[in-house]
Write a structure and sequence with these properties.
Elements lengths: L2 H27 L5 H8 L3 H7 L3 H24 L4 H17 L4 H11 L10 H13 L9 H12 L13 H11 L15 H8 L11
């Protein structure tokens, strides 16, 4: 192996280690945690961090893009399931589990939206999720008044279990089972009140700077 090839391999290894340690650090201390601590955890010098990521926002942007790629990796399994209902189960299980294990994600999403409001790679999944919902409803397994945005909100709700820390992660599928039972189509389903939110509005809201506060009338 040539020296340049060895250097490239070492650089890739350092890059992957920095991303892994950044996830752990941001989970524990938030996305404003000191990057010097990231260097220490990864076993590299501070200069190495900035050779790979020009600044904190560059690191955050890559973590976001890595997350989108991880979601795309689940697509074949979810959309290729034998039934529409199985796709719904896999969608909630895989995505909510991923969010629960990565409690820094909401802050990452908000920061990227601040940096570049026009950057919306997650929107590319809208048609696929809509198709999944339509398939499950056509087979009569998913209640007809549920939308893809409803499922996305449920992913966020289930994923918020991550706030309890890793100690609760072995148990979160208890809540998943309750949610799935509520999604099944039954003659006695209680009607859902109101109109569903549109996907674009939900996307922008979920990437917003923070929660919208109600103003007193």
């Amino acid at each position: 192996m040539t020296q340049s090839a060895s250097q490239r391999r070492d650089a890739r290894r350092n890059h992957e280690r920095l991303l892994a340690e950044a996830r752990a650090l941001f989970t524990e201390r938030g996305i404003e945690a000191p990057l010097d601590e990231l260097a220490t955890r990864a076993g590299v010098g501070a200069g190495t961090v900035y050779r790979h990521f020009a600044n904190r926002d560059a690191l955050i942007r890559e973590l976001y893009d890595t997350g989108v790629a991880e979601l795309a990796d689940h697509a074949a399994e979810i959309l290729g399931a034998e039934t529409g209902w199985r796709s719904i189960e896999l969608y909630l299980d895989r995505l909510a589990g991923w969010v629960a294990a990565s409690p820094f994600l909401p802050a990452i999403m908000r920061r990227v939206a601040e940096l570049d409001p026009s950057y919306r790679p997650g929107a590319e999944f809208a048609d696929a999720i809509n198709g999944m919902v339509a398939r499950a409803q056509a087979e009569g397994s998913l209640r007809p008044d549920v939308t893809s945005v409803d499922l996305s909100v449920l992913v966020d709700m289930l994923g918020s279990i991550g706030q309890y820390g890793s100690a609760y992660l072995p148990f979160w599928r208890r809540q998943l089972t309750i949610v799935l039972d509520g999604l099944r189509a039954r003659p006695d389903n209680t009607p859902i009140e109101g109109e569903a939110q549109g996907f674009d509005e939900f996307h922008d809201m979920s990437h917003a700077k923070g929660p919208t506060r109600l103003r007193p009338e």
